[in-house]
Please model this.
Amino acid sequence: MHAPHDHSHDHSHDRGRSHAHAHSHDAASVRTIELDTIIHAAFLADVTTWLRSRVGDLAVRRVLDVGSGTGAGTVALAEQFPDAEVIAADVSDVMLERVRSLAAERGLATRISTEKADIAADVTRLGRFDLAWASASLHEADDPDRAFENLFAALRPGGLLTVVEMDGPPRVLPLELADLEERLHAAFEPVRQGNAYHLDWSAPLARAGFELETLRTVAIEETVDGHGPAGEFATLFLTRMMSAAASQLSAPDAAQLTALLGDGPDSLRRRSDLRLRGSRSVWLARRPEQRPRPRWTPP
Ligand SMILES: C[S@@+](CC[C@H](N)C(=O)[O-])C[C@H]1O[C@@H](n2cnc3c(N)ncnc32)[C@H](O)[C@@H]1O
Model:
Protein backbone atom coordinates (compact mmCIF):
# COMPACT_ATOMS: atom_id res chain seq x y z
CA MET A 1 0.00 0.00 0.00
CA HIS A 2 1.22 3.44 -0.71
CA ALA A 3 0.58 5.50 2.37
CA PRO A 4 1.03 9.16 1.49
CA HIS A 5 4.20 8.96 3.46
CA ASP A 6 7.20 10.81 4.66
CA HIS A 7 9.66 11.44 1.90
CA SER A 8 12.59 12.68 3.92
CA HIS A 9 15.27 10.93 1.94
CA ASP A 10 17.31 8.71 4.16
CA HIS A 11 17.77 5.96 1.64
CA SER A 12 21.42 5.41 0.97
CA HIS A 13 20.68 4.00 -2.48
CA ASP A 14 18.60 6.95 -3.51
CA ARG A 15 20.02 7.97 -6.81
CA GLY A 16 17.46 10.70 -7.27
CA ARG A 17 15.00 8.84 -9.47
CA SER A 18 11.68 10.59 -9.58
CA HIS A 19 9.96 7.75 -7.77
CA ALA A 20 12.65 6.92 -5.26
CA HIS A 21 10.95 6.53 -1.91
CA ALA A 22 12.36 7.05 1.50
CA HIS A 23 12.13 4.23 3.99
CA SER A 24 11.85 6.25 7.15
CA HIS A 25 8.62 4.70 8.27
CA ASP A 26 7.07 6.66 11.08
CA ALA A 27 4.54 4.98 13.34
CA ALA A 28 1.57 6.31 11.38
CA SER A 29 2.86 5.07 8.02
CA VAL A 30 3.71 1.62 9.45
CA ARG A 31 0.22 1.43 10.94
CA THR A 32 -1.35 2.60 7.66
CA ILE A 33 0.47 -0.17 5.75
CA GLU A 34 -0.59 -2.70 8.39
CA LEU A 35 -4.22 -1.54 8.32
CA ASP A 36 -4.20 -1.67 4.53
CA THR A 37 -3.35 -5.37 4.70
CA ILE A 38 -6.04 -5.95 7.33
CA ILE A 39 -8.79 -4.32 5.31
CA HIS A 40 -7.58 -5.99 2.10
CA ALA A 41 -7.32 -9.44 3.70
CA ALA A 42 -9.85 -10.87 1.24
CA PHE A 43 -7.75 -9.65 -1.69
CA LEU A 44 -4.61 -11.21 -0.22
CA ALA A 45 -6.39 -14.51 0.42
CA ASP A 46 -7.76 -14.48 -3.14
CA VAL A 47 -4.36 -13.83 -4.76
CA THR A 48 -2.36 -16.29 -2.63
CA THR A 49 -5.00 -19.02 -3.12
CA TRP A 50 -4.91 -18.34 -6.87
CA LEU A 51 -1.10 -18.49 -6.78
CA ARG A 52 -1.21 -21.88 -5.11
CA SER A 53 -3.54 -23.09 -7.85
CA ARG A 54 -0.99 -21.91 -10.43
CA VAL A 55 2.18 -23.52 -9.11
CA GLY A 56 1.29 -26.92 -10.56
CA ASP A 57 3.89 -29.52 -9.69
CA LEU A 58 6.54 -26.99 -8.67
CA ALA A 59 7.86 -28.13 -5.28
CA VAL A 60 7.63 -25.05 -3.11
CA ARG A 61 10.25 -25.23 -0.37
CA ARG A 62 11.68 -21.70 -0.26
CA VAL A 63 9.62 -18.55 -0.70
CA LEU A 64 10.86 -14.95 -0.74
CA ASP A 65 8.58 -12.05 0.25
CA VAL A 66 10.52 -9.00 -0.80
CA GLY A 67 9.51 -5.62 0.55
CA SER A 68 7.49 -7.58 3.08
CA GLY A 69 6.27 -4.57 5.05
CA THR A 70 4.48 -5.72 8.17
CA GLY A 71 4.30 -9.35 7.02
CA ALA A 72 0.70 -10.01 6.01
CA GLY A 73 1.89 -11.46 2.69
CA THR A 74 4.65 -13.44 4.41
CA VAL A 75 2.12 -15.10 6.71
CA ALA A 76 -0.38 -15.72 3.89
CA LEU A 77 2.36 -17.41 1.85
CA ALA A 78 3.46 -19.55 4.80
CA GLU A 79 -0.17 -20.64 5.22
CA GLN A 80 -0.65 -21.45 1.53
CA PHE A 81 2.64 -23.36 1.24
CA PRO A 82 2.89 -25.41 4.43
CA ASP A 83 6.06 -27.22 3.34
CA ALA A 84 7.95 -24.02 2.69
CA GLU A 85 10.17 -21.74 4.67
CA VAL A 86 9.35 -18.12 3.94
CA ILE A 87 11.94 -15.38 4.10
CA ALA A 88 10.71 -11.83 4.53
CA ALA A 89 13.18 -9.29 3.19
CA ASP A 90 12.87 -5.56 3.65
CA VAL A 91 15.14 -2.53 3.91
CA SER A 92 13.36 -1.43 7.08
CA ASP A 93 14.21 -2.85 10.50
CA VAL A 94 10.89 -1.58 11.86
CA MET A 95 9.01 -3.64 9.27
CA LEU A 96 11.08 -6.76 9.89
CA GLU A 97 10.37 -6.50 13.60
CA ARG A 98 6.64 -6.41 12.77
CA VAL A 99 7.01 -9.50 10.59
CA ARG A 100 8.67 -11.39 13.46
CA SER A 101 5.89 -10.47 15.91
CA LEU A 102 3.16 -11.40 13.43
CA ALA A 103 4.86 -14.72 12.65
CA ALA A 104 5.10 -15.51 16.36
CA GLU A 105 1.47 -14.48 16.92
CA ARG A 106 0.32 -16.86 14.14
CA GLY A 107 2.49 -19.75 15.36
CA LEU A 108 4.66 -19.57 12.22
CA ALA A 109 7.95 -18.44 13.72
CA THR A 110 9.71 -21.70 12.86
CA ARG A 111 9.00 -21.30 9.15
CA ILE A 112 9.31 -17.53 8.78
CA SER A 113 12.59 -15.67 9.03
CA THR A 114 13.57 -12.11 8.24
CA GLU A 115 16.49 -10.57 6.39
CA LYS A 116 17.43 -6.97 5.91
CA ALA A 117 18.03 -6.79 2.17
CA ASP A 118 17.46 -4.45 -0.74
CA ILE A 119 15.68 -5.74 -3.86
CA ALA A 120 17.77 -3.54 -6.10
CA ALA A 121 21.07 -4.42 -4.41
CA ASP A 122 21.89 -7.41 -2.23
CA VAL A 123 18.77 -9.61 -2.26
CA THR A 124 20.58 -12.31 -4.25
CA ARG A 125 22.73 -13.15 -1.23
CA LEU A 126 19.64 -14.88 0.24
CA GLY A 127 20.07 -17.86 -2.08
CA ARG A 128 17.68 -19.56 -4.50
CA PHE A 129 13.90 -19.60 -4.17
CA ASP A 130 11.04 -21.51 -5.75
CA LEU A 131 8.66 -18.58 -5.42
CA ALA A 132 9.17 -14.85 -5.00
CA TRP A 133 6.48 -12.36 -4.02
CA ALA A 134 6.77 -8.57 -4.25
CA SER A 135 3.66 -6.71 -3.18
CA ALA A 136 3.57 -2.93 -3.42
CA SER A 137 7.34 -2.83 -3.12
CA LEU A 138 8.86 -2.80 -6.59
CA HIS A 139 7.62 0.71 -7.26
CA GLU A 140 9.81 1.79 -4.34
CA ALA A 141 13.01 0.30 -5.76
CA ASP A 142 15.45 2.89 -7.03
CA ASP A 143 16.36 0.74 -10.01
CA PRO A 144 13.46 -1.52 -11.05
CA ASP A 145 15.43 -3.19 -13.87
CA ARG A 146 18.12 -4.19 -11.42
CA ALA A 147 15.41 -5.38 -9.01
CA PHE A 148 13.89 -7.65 -11.68
CA GLU A 149 17.33 -8.96 -12.65
CA ASN A 150 17.98 -9.76 -8.99
CA LEU A 151 14.63 -11.51 -8.63
CA PHE A 152 15.38 -13.53 -11.75
CA ALA A 153 18.74 -14.56 -10.28
CA ALA A 154 17.10 -15.39 -6.93
CA LEU A 155 14.63 -17.81 -8.54
CA ARG A 156 15.51 -21.29 -9.61
CA PRO A 157 14.77 -22.15 -13.25
CA GLY A 158 11.04 -22.80 -13.44
CA GLY A 159 10.43 -20.64 -10.35
CA LEU A 160 7.57 -18.14 -10.19
CA LEU A 161 7.47 -14.45 -9.37
CA THR A 162 4.28 -12.67 -8.30
CA VAL A 163 4.25 -8.90 -8.36
CA VAL A 164 1.34 -6.91 -6.96
CA GLU A 165 0.82 -3.17 -7.33
CA MET A 166 -2.07 -0.85 -6.63
CA ASP A 167 -3.50 0.76 -9.76
CA GLY A 168 -4.31 3.93 -7.86
CA PRO A 169 -4.87 5.20 -4.35
CA PRO A 170 -7.80 3.44 -2.69
CA ARG A 171 -11.10 5.22 -2.15
CA VAL A 172 -12.73 4.71 1.22
CA LEU A 173 -15.45 7.27 1.87
CA PRO A 174 -19.17 6.40 1.73
CA LEU A 175 -20.52 6.67 -1.82
CA GLU A 176 -22.50 9.82 -1.01
CA LEU A 177 -19.13 11.47 -0.26
CA ALA A 178 -17.39 10.16 -3.36
CA ASP A 179 -17.24 13.60 -5.02
CA LEU A 180 -15.62 15.12 -1.94
CA GLU A 181 -13.10 12.28 -1.93
CA GLU A 182 -12.30 12.89 -5.61
CA ARG A 183 -11.71 16.59 -4.89
CA LEU A 184 -9.30 15.62 -2.09
CA HIS A 185 -7.41 13.30 -4.43
CA ALA A 186 -7.27 16.00 -7.11
CA ALA A 187 -5.94 18.51 -4.56
CA PHE A 188 -3.35 15.99 -3.35
CA GLU A 189 -2.14 14.94 -6.80
CA PRO A 190 0.17 17.93 -7.44
CA VAL A 191 1.92 17.45 -4.08
CA ARG A 192 1.98 13.66 -4.20
CA GLN A 193 5.51 12.36 -4.43
CA GLY A 194 6.53 9.22 -6.18
CA ASN A 195 5.26 7.42 -9.21
CA ALA A 196 3.57 4.55 -7.52
CA TYR A 197 0.54 3.97 -9.71
CA HIS A 198 -0.36 2.78 -13.19
CA LEU A 199 2.92 0.95 -13.50
CA ASP A 200 3.36 -1.65 -16.15
CA TRP A 201 5.99 -4.15 -15.18
CA SER A 202 5.51 -6.35 -18.25
CA ALA A 203 8.46 -4.79 -20.15
CA PRO A 204 10.97 -4.86 -17.25
CA LEU A 205 9.93 -8.47 -16.53
CA ALA A 206 10.67 -9.45 -20.14
CA ARG A 207 13.98 -7.53 -20.15
CA ALA A 208 15.09 -9.49 -17.08
CA GLY A 209 14.31 -12.78 -18.87
CA PHE A 210 10.95 -13.64 -17.29
CA GLU A 211 8.08 -15.17 -19.21
CA LEU A 212 4.83 -13.48 -18.26
CA GLU A 213 2.20 -16.11 -17.50
CA THR A 214 -0.70 -13.89 -16.42
CA LEU A 215 -1.51 -10.27 -15.76
CA ARG A 216 -4.62 -10.00 -13.62
CA THR A 217 -6.46 -6.90 -12.54
CA VAL A 218 -8.48 -7.41 -9.39
CA ALA A 219 -11.23 -4.93 -8.60
CA ILE A 220 -11.96 -4.17 -4.97
CA GLU A 221 -15.44 -2.94 -4.06
CA GLU A 222 -16.71 -3.56 -0.58
CA THR A 223 -18.74 -1.86 2.11
CA VAL A 224 -16.82 -1.76 5.37
CA ASP A 225 -17.55 -0.72 8.92
CA GLY A 226 -15.85 2.49 10.02
CA HIS A 227 -15.74 1.45 13.67
CA GLY A 228 -12.90 -0.99 13.06
CA PRO A 229 -9.63 -1.01 11.13
CA ALA A 230 -11.24 0.49 7.99
CA GLY A 231 -12.19 3.65 9.89
CA GLU A 232 -8.72 3.90 11.41
CA PHE A 233 -7.14 3.34 7.99
CA ALA A 234 -9.36 5.92 6.31
CA THR A 235 -8.67 8.47 9.03
CA LEU A 236 -4.88 8.04 8.87
CA PHE A 237 -4.75 7.92 5.09
CA LEU A 238 -7.03 10.89 4.44
CA THR A 239 -5.53 12.97 7.26
CA ARG A 240 -2.08 12.66 5.66
CA MET A 241 -3.49 13.64 2.28
CA MET A 242 -5.45 16.50 3.73
CA SER A 243 -2.54 17.99 5.62
CA ALA A 244 -0.43 17.91 2.46
CA ALA A 245 -3.18 19.36 0.27
CA ALA A 246 -4.90 21.70 2.74
CA SER A 247 -4.14 24.91 0.83
CA GLN A 248 -5.71 23.45 -2.34
CA LEU A 249 -9.06 22.63 -0.75
CA SER A 250 -12.10 24.89 -0.60
CA ALA A 251 -13.13 26.01 2.91
CA PRO A 252 -16.36 23.93 2.90
CA ASP A 253 -14.49 20.81 1.74
CA ALA A 254 -11.81 21.32 4.38
CA ALA A 255 -14.46 21.77 7.09
CA GLN A 256 -16.37 18.66 6.02
CA LEU A 257 -13.21 16.56 5.89
CA THR A 258 -12.12 17.84 9.29
CA ALA A 259 -15.45 16.71 10.76
CA LEU A 260 -15.20 13.30 9.08
CA LEU A 261 -11.65 12.76 10.25
CA GLY A 262 -12.26 13.95 13.80
CA ASP A 263 -13.82 12.24 16.82
CA GLY A 264 -17.12 14.16 16.83
CA PRO A 265 -20.62 13.06 15.79
CA ASP A 266 -19.76 13.28 12.06
CA SER A 267 -16.68 11.11 12.37
CA LEU A 268 -16.37 8.46 9.70
CA ARG A 269 -15.36 6.09 12.48
CA ARG A 270 -19.00 6.22 13.61
CA ARG A 271 -20.35 5.14 10.24
CA SER A 272 -20.90 1.69 8.91
CA ASP A 273 -21.11 2.57 5.20
CA LEU A 274 -17.49 3.18 4.25
CA ARG A 275 -16.94 1.98 0.71
CA LEU A 276 -13.56 0.49 -0.13
CA ARG A 277 -12.90 0.90 -3.84
CA GLY A 278 -9.83 0.30 -5.93
CA SER A 279 -8.00 -2.11 -8.12
CA ARG A 280 -4.70 -3.94 -8.06
CA SER A 281 -2.63 -5.55 -10.77
CA VAL A 282 -1.00 -8.93 -10.31
CA TRP A 283 1.75 -10.18 -12.61
CA LEU A 284 2.66 -13.86 -12.53
CA ALA A 285 5.94 -14.53 -14.32
CA ARG A 286 8.24 -17.51 -14.60
CA ARG A 287 11.97 -17.85 -14.82
CA PRO A 288 12.11 -20.23 -17.78
CA GLU A 289 13.57 -23.68 -17.35
CA GLN A 290 17.08 -23.86 -18.71
CA ARG A 291 16.88 -24.89 -22.29
CA PRO A 292 19.31 -27.58 -23.35
CA ARG A 293 22.18 -26.06 -25.29
CA PRO A 294 22.07 -26.89 -28.99
CA ARG A 295 24.54 -29.71 -29.65
CA TRP A 296 27.63 -28.66 -31.55
CA THR A 297 27.97 -30.56 -34.71
CA PRO A 298 31.19 -30.54 -36.68
CA PRO A 299 30.96 -28.72 -39.99
C1 LIG B 1 4.12 -0.12 0.70
S1 LIG B 1 5.00 -1.30 1.62
C2 LIG B 1 4.26 -2.84 1.13
C3 LIG B 1 4.42 -3.88 2.17
C4 LIG B 1 3.79 -5.24 1.89
N1 LIG B 1 4.49 -5.99 0.87
C5 LIG B 1 2.34 -5.09 1.55
O1 LIG B 1 1.92 -5.48 0.46
O2 LIG B 1 1.60 -4.59 2.39
C6 LIG B 1 6.56 -1.34 0.77
C7 LIG B 1 7.64 -2.05 1.54
O3 LIG B 1 8.77 -2.23 0.68
C8 LIG B 1 9.94 -1.94 1.41
N2 LIG B 1 10.97 -1.56 0.44
C9 LIG B 1 11.03 -0.41 -0.26
N3 LIG B 1 12.10 -0.43 -1.08
C10 LIG B 1 12.72 -1.61 -0.91
C11 LIG B 1 13.88 -2.20 -1.45
N4 LIG B 1 14.61 -1.55 -2.34
N5 LIG B 1 14.24 -3.44 -1.02
C12 LIG B 1 13.48 -4.10 -0.10
N6 LIG B 1 12.38 -3.56 0.45
C13 LIG B 1 11.99 -2.34 0.07
C14 LIG B 1 9.53 -0.83 2.37
O4 LIG B 1 10.40 -0.73 3.48
C15 LIG B 1 8.12 -1.29 2.75
O5 LIG B 1 8.14 -2.14 3.86
About this structure: Strands lie at 62-66, 85-90, 112-116, 129-135, 155-166, 211-224, 274-286. The two ends are 58 Å apart (CA to CA). The mean pLDDT is 90. Residues 27-169+195-223+278-286 form a domain with the Rossmann fold fold (CATH 3.40.50.150).
